[in-house]
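RECORD TYPE: inverse folding
INPUT: structure tokens
STRUCTURE:
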């Protein structure tokens, strides 16, 4: 897989991504400072998150009251609006990255943002775990002439296989990920990385970590991860849910240094703990936690984990009606979309099953599609 001028894969240096996401607090000045600090510590790429509110969320989800210490507004919509950069802001940041010599990318969080990012000629576009079951978005992405990196948090093994089948005709990467902030070591499931490599030969496999500390991420490199992504912050005490599971510049710098020390090692998996105890600072190493992260797993362990439920409840997406529909109407692909909805509806993995079904009541644009709305089994395709 080629990202910009970089080749990524076996025998290549690990590609290290600092996920700035929305840790910039809605400030372009802070975003630029974070980019500079990431460049100084040797990161290969900085990544942001691009959303179009009306394309990602239903109106009821945007109007949901959102109070608390991490809120930037009275409603979730106001909160997201404060943190969202415009497309022109993205062009400015992309140019800034080009000038200082670091790659710039972003996650596409909805169909509108996907098209916008494709216009920016990025080295790759990320599909985050929250859209890894978004069948129409994945299919649209697979038609584009740009590499994609897909995180697999909250997904079943069957859905990981579906992602592979959708993207298999083009260069792309799969990142093992657990969508828990922070991720408990026992649910890190690092041994899924070699399972991904064995089951999807030719696909670049990486790791997107949300755990505390460095050792689990380093272990992922020794297991074969060739892309590493960690959240990045300038201050863990800033307002926002991601900061506490992020690395500050000093920590991220230690991570980069350690990755470069181990990325070319070829070892048996039972040697990982011994190797890391040698290359890491004593304060960064915890053998008991590492053992939990390195426990044996099977493909059936890749499912929605208990620690991922809060993230799925907050930001998991559902099938929604994209326009008003009448009772008895047969649904087409233009009637059905995928958004964060309030309340939750049918999972996006059922997109193909819903198309061609009849609706048994009047429903409105942006309503989540509920099981009771559909005359299951009556297909008019």
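DESIGNED SEQUENCE:
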């Amino acid at each position: 897989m080629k990202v910009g001028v970089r080749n990524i894969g076996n025998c290549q240096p690990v590609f290290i991504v600092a996920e700035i996401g929305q840790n910039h607090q809605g400030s372009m000045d802070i975003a630029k400072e974070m980019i500079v600090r990431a460049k100084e510590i040797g990161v290969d790429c900085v990544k942001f998150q691009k959303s179009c509110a009306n394309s990602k969320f239903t109106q009821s989800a945007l109007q949901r009251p959102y109070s608390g210490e991490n809120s930037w507004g009275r409603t979730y919509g106001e909160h997201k609006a404060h943190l969202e950069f415009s497309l022109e802001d993205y062009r400015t940041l992309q140019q800034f990255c080009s000038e200082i010599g670091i790659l710039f990318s972003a996650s596409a969080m909805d169909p509108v943002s996907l098209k916008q990012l494709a216009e920016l000629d990025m080295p790759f576009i990320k599909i985050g775990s929250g859209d890894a079951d978004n069948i129409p978005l994945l299919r649209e992405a697979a038609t584009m002439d740009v590499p994609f990196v897909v995180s697999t948090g909250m997904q079943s093994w069957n859905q990981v296989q579906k992602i592979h089948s959708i993207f298999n005709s083009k260069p792309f990467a799969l990142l093992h990920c657990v969508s828990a902030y922070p991720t408990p070591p026992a649910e890190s499931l690092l041994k899924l990385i070699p399972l991904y490599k064995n089951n999807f030969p030719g696909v670049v496999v990486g790791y997107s970590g949300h755990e505390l500390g460095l050792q689990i991420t380093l272990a992922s490199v020794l297991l074969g991860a060739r892309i590493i992504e960690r959240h990045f912050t300038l201050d863990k005490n800033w307002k926002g849910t991601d900061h506490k599971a992020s690395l500050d510049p000093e920590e991220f710098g230690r991570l980069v240094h350690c990755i470069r020390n181990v990325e070319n090692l070829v070892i048996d998996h039972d040697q990982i703990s011994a190797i890391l105890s040698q290359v890491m600072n004593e304060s960064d190493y915890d053998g008991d936690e590492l053992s939990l992260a390195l426990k044996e797993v099977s493909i059936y362990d890749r499912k929605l984990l208990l620690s991922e439920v809060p993230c799925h409840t907050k930001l998991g997406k559902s099938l929604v009606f994209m326009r008003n529909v009448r009772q008895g109407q047969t649904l087409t692909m233009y009637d059905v979309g995928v958004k964060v909805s309030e309340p939750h509806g049918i999972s996006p993995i059922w997109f193909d099953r819903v198309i061609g079904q009849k609706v048994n009541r009047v429903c409105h644009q942006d309503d989540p599609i509920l099981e009771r709305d559909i005359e299951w089994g009556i297909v008019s395709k």
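NOTES: The chain is about 35% helix and 15% strand.
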